[in-house]
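Narrative progress, year one. The postdoctoral researcher (J.K.) led the effort to move from monomer predictions toward full complexes, under supervision of the PI. The following entry was the first complex the group processed end to end, covering 582 residues in total.
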Amino acid sequence: MNNFDDDLRLALRERASGVSFPADLSGAAIRRARSIRRRRRIGGAVAAVALVAVGVPAGLQVSDSLSRGDQQIAPVEQDDRGAPDDGGDGDDRGGDIVSSTVNVDLAELEEGDPPLVPHVDGSELVVDGDRLDLGVPAQQLSYVVHAGGEAWYTVGDDMGNLSLQTTGADLSLPVSQGPWASPDGRYVAWLAGGEVTVLDTASGDEATLAVGDVAHLQVVTFVGDELFVVPGDNRRTLLRWRIGDDDATALDGFVRPTAVSPDGSLVADMVSIDDYGSCTQVKELDGTPVGPRTCDFRIQGFSADGTYAYGSSSYGDGYADTFKVVLNVADGEVLMRINGPADDPDGSRQVSFMQATFETEAALVMLLEQGRNAALVRCDPATGECTRVSELAGGVEPYAADAPFRLTA
Amino acid sequence: MNATEEQHFVEFVAARQHALLRTAYLLTSDHHAAEDLVQTALAKAYLSWHKLREPAAADGYVRRIMVNENTSLWRRAWKRNEHATDTLPERPTTHDASGDVEAREEMWALVQTLPPKQRAAVVLRYYEDLSEADTAAALGCSVGNVKSQTSRAIATLRGRVSTGAATATGGAR
């Protein structure tokens, strides 16, 4: 102890003693807590489960020769140490989730149950445990979805041309991008010749929307009988199209939309971007902000009812994202951050986060690559744990096999 | 949360809100921000209240949320280019015969220039009188990190106090 320490201590105490006090804070705190809880609640079944098609690298087929290890997950830091346990009672979901950071090393992950979301394993589409053989080598597959009880997929040739095919018919249609499927499996869509075509698999009817001379769509989200799209050449325009109408409505109030929630209530809008990062604001469809703006993360997708969002670095990494976060939309709180190995000084064990989708509630299923390996991994903020939910695939140097991997909703 | 648990929460708030507000003020330098910070921390604690294993842990739990929330808010503001400045806040004009009040005001002004985690470490160690281990728990970091954060903070404060003293001396000549 010395005079400096005493001075510091006295200075702080003197300052603190001058604080004025409001009336009892408990009422306001409880009201705020209930507001947070309302936003966190998940309503109904999870639409994302049924119809999000996930592809995995061809290498998944050859995983048997590789270590499957039964070790526990690599270092887990609970930044709420000593806080309430994270066991859930199913009612108070907001309180169940304890903010956590998990460092993932694919070879060390404990194995978990297979993904509930449809996914591609080699050249097969797996839906609810059933397998649809696509008859195409996995390396040639681009997008794969499940709609109308069939697999719809695009196959690339050596020149990069894509053709749309399906297990339900003898079809080979040149397309620019797609397919995408609606959450209920009724609609399947693709982009070709500057038009988005939507096929109603129930009636066989097709509808088209002209989107200009674009090769890509940035955002494609089905919500009931509507489709939200952001044409690739004008990423500032969010179109809302009632399928079958002559025209779509351009929604005002967005700078650069990056995601639409599956229930159609929220839009992630990148409101600023520069060389060093970006800021994202979640908004309602009329442009009203929801929750805080984040300049730490770029929001990339929402859970079924928009309660949770996932994202990654605000500036975007080169080959792939190097981490993912799950956020609570209402208050921007990071519920879970998933990183590569903590002890990786030379970056040789870096994990690339290739694709992600919400599975149930806040649980995220991702395709991760690490060196020559790849696997599907589930990370659940409710448990603070990640598990490997596919085989560990071996790929080709220096990366895992090129992943024909897409998520649609 | 059942009625009993809610009653415990209300009693906890009644008993601890003033202390929490004082700490929050030392972290934020702003009465309104402090109140908002405490309210946010209490709201988050409320959501998990029924799972507190030990009622005695509530104080530390809320404090931890408060510190993390404040650091997170600061980080967001920094990303928005609302950068903290090295320029010291305006010096107070209050004097007493011994100059002690002025010295403490200057010390407080310097504390406000510290990065949030260093500032939190200083507040928890020197105001709350927490141990290094408890401070580490509140900050969500290792004891070693607390030591380094505190050490850097104190070195900064000492350096600036010295600079200020030298400047004052020089100016008087």
